[in-house]
Amino acid sequence: MHLVSNEIENYIAQFSSAEDEVLRELSRETYLKIQMPQMVSGNLQGQFLEMISRMLQPKRIVEVGAFTGYSAICLAKGLTDGGLLYTIDVNEELQPMCARYFEKTNLTSKIKHLIGDARKIIPELNEAFDLVFIDADKINYCNYYDLVFDKVRVGGYIIADNVLWSGKVVEEKKDKDTLAIHQYNEKIAADARVKNFILPLRDGLNIAVKQ
Prior knowledge:
The chain has 211 residues and is an alpha/beta fold. The chain has a single domain, classed as Rossmann fold (3-Layer(aba) Sandwich). Helix content is 39%, strand content 21%. It has helices at residues 6-14, 21-33, 42-56, 70-76, 95-104, 118-121, 141-149, 176-190, and strands spanning 60-64, 84-89, 111-115, 129-134, 152-161, 194-199, 205-210. The model has no long low-confidence stretch (mean pLDDT 96).
């Protein structure tokens, strides 16, 4: 998942704001106890998500893919007063861990954790979203985009994670997940309703703004 050298990542971390202590604790527990801990957003991406959210000051955010709650916490920090973040995940076993850290960061009232299939949950959300973060199963990225698009206000942002997929997207032979990611990138690039840019941060973020 490293598209730049460890030395450069360390340099970036050295000259960026320090990781929040609770988030550091969350990351450490994720690596100690949870399978595939590399899925946690981590400090650099987390700080980027927090900064984007603070700039936008969104009233409503939806996140597809909660994992252990790291990115939800970062995004929720930028919510305006009375704002709410919906985070959706199929893994109910991780919900208690997420809840503990939402409470530790005093964000419980700003985060609604929904368990189930996002393809069924998103259509039931009667909201206008300012910010969407997609970081779940890659096969359904295009489906999540289509389901949420009409619920995003003009000027709202849709950010998708892992869109460079450890660099595999440029390989000629693509496995099913790589192909799904490539098809998502193609779809966004061809969608005249948005302007987008792929940021090579961590594993790649596709950032699209609805026009």
